[in-house]
Structure formats: structure tokens, C-alpha cells
Amino acid sequence: MPHPSSPDLLVLHAVRLKGFAETDALAARFGLDAAQAHEDLLDAEAYGWVTRAAFAGLKGWSLTEAGRRRNETGLREELDRVGAREPVAAVHDDFLPLNGQATQAFTAWQLGSMAAPAPAPTGDVLGQLAGIADGLHPLEQRLTAHLIRFDGYHRRFAGALARAAADPVWITGMEVDSCHRIWFELHEDLIATLGISR
Amino acid sequence: MTDPTPDVVTGVPSSPGRASGPARVVRSLADFARVRPGDVLVCRTTDPAWTPLFRLAAAVVAETGGLLSHAAIVAREYRIPAVVGASGAMTRLVDGARISVDGTLGTVAADETP
């Protein structure tokens, strides 16, 4: 039976996954009400779990060390409450070889395009990433069978991939929700959920 | 202040190019506010929270990771030199001291001071 997560867990987890983001982007991550997310973030700030900072002309929320621990405690309690530790750990085991393929594809693409004088052809990497998207889909289904909050990675990845043919910034770009950013977010989500290090 | 015996740290060359700047040893989120534009980010590893620092940094040196790591991929995206898997970097590089990073060779050297 899929389990919905509590909004206060989700708002803190959105900060963990996004790393550094404004309120609207954090609320949008899990489809939370923006005004309520704002209130929850102010509460979390009062508890010392999040901090609002400015870097390089950007403003956003990020987790404090205490917030990171609080997030991991919440995730651990949720995982044990729904009895999903074993299946999520099994997904992580199956994710790792796919992660190796994905980071290899991203790296090869970057190194190739940095060396190329003109825009590099995207054929190889798009084919590889399509295969990785196919591998991601069943992993996400196994996760969402227990925790609804894992929904959306495959849809976002496939969406980014579809746009990458016309604009390769969607492969590894940092300013858009690129394949690499989505992939890395899932990796962060799995290790945060399991309370393990990379 | 002079440093007559510059320490050299080596690691995996992960994002090509060369850059110099003051070393900024960042251990946790609490250190983020100390990072200034043009600093060389020196850290253990990076995760999504660290991404904004790459917009400021002249180069990145990470103690862990390899060519496929988050720090390497993000550094290449921002076109800044990176050396990762640089064992001992956080202890051997002095916060605030000018260093030069060669992301093509995988070396980090303390700059000679006049």
C-alpha cells in the first residue's frame, strides 16, 4: 500500500534534495501549497533546521547540520513505519550499476563536448540515456509501491531527455532540470532515505 | 608571509584548465558563508547543497571522488578546473593561502609568494 509522506517531512526533504532553492521551487518539488511551505520553512528556521542565505546573486534555503539530521530522522522513522527498508535498500542495490552507466554517459558527453570545436553530436549519449530511462522506470515503480514521494523521477528524466535532442543543455546543464540533475537528485534521495553515505 | 616549502597535492584530473586563488577549506554548511568569488573550494565531497559554491569558485579540490563524481561533473559544467580524489587536501592546503589548481594534470601547488 503506497504511503503518503507528511507535509513537514516533505518540505525539509525538498530542501535536502534541491540543496539550495527558493520557497516556490521547494513547494513545487512535492506539490505543496506555497504559502503553507513558506510557513513551514519559517518554523524550520526557528528550530535551526534551515537557513536562508545568498550565494552568487542567488537567494535560497539550505539545510543546517541539525536540519540534515532532523531530515534523516524523519526519513528513517517513515521508512520503518511503512516497513520499506528492505525493498528500498534492494532498489538502491539495483540503482548502483545503473548509476555507474549514467555517470559514465554524462562524463563522456561532457568531455566530448568540451573537446569539440563545434556543438558535439548528441546521438550516442541520447541513446545511452534512453536505455537508462528504461532502467529507471521499474526502479521508481518499486519505490512508489511503498512511498509515493518517490514519484516523478522517470517522468522528469524522460522529459529532459526529450528536450535534449534540440538543446543539449538538458543533458548535464545546471540551470535547467537536466538529466544529470534529476539523476543526482534521485541518488541523494536514496542515500538520505537509507541514511547511508555516497 | 612566505611559504618556502609549498605542499603539492595530487588527485584525479577531472575538469581541465588552470586557475589560482585563495584556498577556502569548507568542512560543512556552516563554512559556506566564508566562500568568496575567486576562491578555490577545498572540500571532502559535495552534494546538491554545495552546487551554488561552484558558481563562485575559481576551481575545486575534493578529497574524495573520481572522474564520474558529482564534484567533477558539476565543475565541468561550470567550466572550472577540478582535482578530485586529492587525498589529504583539507589538511595539507592552508585556508586563505593562494594555490594553483591544474585540472588537466591533477595537481595543486602552493603559489610562490613574493
Give an overview of the whole structure.
The complex is a heterodimer of chains A (198) and B (114). In chain A, strand 1 and strand 2 form a beta hairpin. Helix content of chain A is 68%, strand content 6%. Chain A is globular and about 50 Å long. In chain A, 39% of the residues are buried. Chain A starts with 6 loop residues before the first helix and ends with a helix. Chain A folds into two domains: 7-81, Winged helix-like DNA-binding domain superfamily/Winged helix DNA-binding domain (Arc Repressor Mutant, subunit A); 85-194. Chain A has nine helices and two strands; from the N terminus they run αααββαααααα. Chain B starts with 7 loop residues before the first strand and ends with a strand. Chain B has a single domain, classed as Glucose Oxidase, domain 1, CATH 3.50.30.10. Helices cover 16% and strands 31% of the residues of chain B. With 114 residues, chain B is an alpha/beta fold. Chains A and B meet through helix 1, strand 1, strand 2, helix 5 and helix 9 of A and helix 1 and helix 2 of B.
